[in-house]
Design a protein that fits this description.
The structure holds two protein chains of two kinds. By secondary structure, chain A is mainly α. Helices cover 57% and strands 0% of the residues of chain A. Chain A has one domain. Chain B contains six helices and no strands. The chains are: A mainly alpha, B mainly alpha.
Chain lengths: 149, 142
């Protein structure tokens, strides 16, 4: 059942990305271009998503457990450290350069263009690189590690 | 390249994304964070719980394909401002950044913010500000 739930959730997610226009990196980048070809659409996507999750999570997390699993897997870390801030900054750099973030990149594979394929392969490589002990010490795991996704 | 402001479609799409996150939480007790789910699917976590993660990822593609089939999304309208080497460099940065920072737009931006997590609020503020700065620099200064 967990697999079916995840598939349904993924389908809703992908349809939402596609309908909202977020599968289009040009549209995403235009959100960040207030001084130029500004397109505020992304703000409405966030507002719509948060309106549902803010209420939905509150109701769901009142339960003792999810329907098809033993417990809720919700990050418990609270500490804001250099890993969090540095990682977010590096992500923002890649996002701002391309308009791609992970979910929309997968949704934009439906264009059959090579660009999301290139992006995703490099992103997966980056995820593997991040596991290697090659990053500056301040970004190494240890201490608080709250994976919010 | 200009894109049209689409308030209704974007709000509706956002509602669907939120619904997706709530479904994954009530069903599986999981955060709908795409970067974390991808990284864990790839790493084949010791908990053996990889199948639902791949189902979610396949679902994202299928959902977008269904939206295209239903005529509410046109893949031909999609444009890629970054191609080739730049797309690869951005991918590497996004992969490293989301792994180190523990989340992306979905995990921190939607799910974490909805839980009013201080970490996610901070991360979302940082990656949004950096993206604004990068676009301003690349489009208006460079």
């Amino acid at each position: 059942m967990q697999i079916l739930v995840a598939l349904l959730s993924g389908i809703l997610f992908g349809a939402g990305l596609a309908i909202s226009g977020m599968a289009n990196p040009a549209k995403v980048l235009n959100f960040f271009d207030i001084a130029g070809t500004w397109d505020p659409s992304l703000a409405l996507v966030m507002a719509g998503a948060l309106a549902v999750t803010l209420v939905g999570y509150r109701l769901v997390l009142r339960r003792a457990a999810p329907i098809f699993a033993g417990k809720f897997h919700v990050p418990s870390a609270r500490h804001i450290d250099m890993r969090l801030v540095g990682g977010a900054a590096v992500f923002g750099l890649g996002w701002g350069l391309s308009g791609f973030c992970p979910g929309p990149a997968i949704a934009s594979l439906t264009t059959l263009s090579m660009q999301p394929v290139i992006f995703i392969i490099a992103m997966l490589a980056g995820m593997l690189v991040a596991k290697l002990p090659v990053l500056p010490k301040i970004f190494q795991p240890g201490g608080s590690r709250g994976t919010a996704s | 390249m200009a894109t049209e402001f689409t308030p209704v479609a974007s709000l509706l799409g956002g509602l669907l994304i939120g619904l997706a996150a709530v479904v994954l939480m009530i069903g599986n007790g999981r955060i709908a964070g795409v970067s974390g789910i991808l990284a864990s699917a790839l790493a084949a976590r010791p908990d053996g719980n990889v199948a639902w993660r791949w189902a979610f990822i396949v679902g994202i593609f299928a959902g977008a394909a269904l939206a295209a089939a239903a005529g509410v999304y046109d893949p031909d309208s999609v444009r890629f401002p970054a191609t080739g080497f730049l797309a690869a460099a951005a991918g590497l940065l996004v992969g490293i950044g989301t792994s180190v920072g523990g989340g992306c737009t979905s995990g921190h931006g939607v799910c974490g913010m909805a839980r009013l997590s201080r970490r996610s609020l901070a991360a979302t503020g940082v990656f949004m500000l950096v993206a604004f700065a990068v676009v301003f620099i690349t489009r208006h200064i460079m």
